[in-house]
Amino acid sequence: MVLTGNCMCGAVGWTYSGDTTRNLVCHCVDCQRATSSPLTAFLGMRREHLNWTGDVVHYESSPGTFRGFCPTCGTRLYFRSGRWPSEVHVHAATMTDPGEYQPDAQVFIGARMKWLDRLRSLPNHQGFQQAPQDSADTP
Ligand SMILES: [Zn+2]
Ligand SMILES: [Zn+2]
Description:
Metal Binding Protein, Guanine Nucleotide Exchange Factor, Chain A, 10 strands, binds zinc ion, 37% strand, mainly beta
């Protein structure tokens, strides 16, 4: 299996060949904060089969744990930790086709945002709920 992905601006890309080691949706509070999102999803990859193009910088979110991101557009790219030294956990939303992602487990479920349960009952819109205002008024 060959997987590819990129950041929002395209300055960073990745290519992986081989089987993924895990396919996890993570609800932990560190991922919520780091991604500014209620949850994130990871593909576990073996380091030696993962290749990057472009520059990636990282933030050490706890001792020995690094969260990589594109320095140009800020897209979160990976989590890696000394606790799993042979793996890199790449954010599934950076896949070339994120719709292909197949999660098989959820972790840190105790931190799952309660409001996720309400999503199915909320009104749905194909685009914005309200038409955007004149762009001259917005920053
Ligand atoms: Zn970028
Ligand atoms: Zn997490």
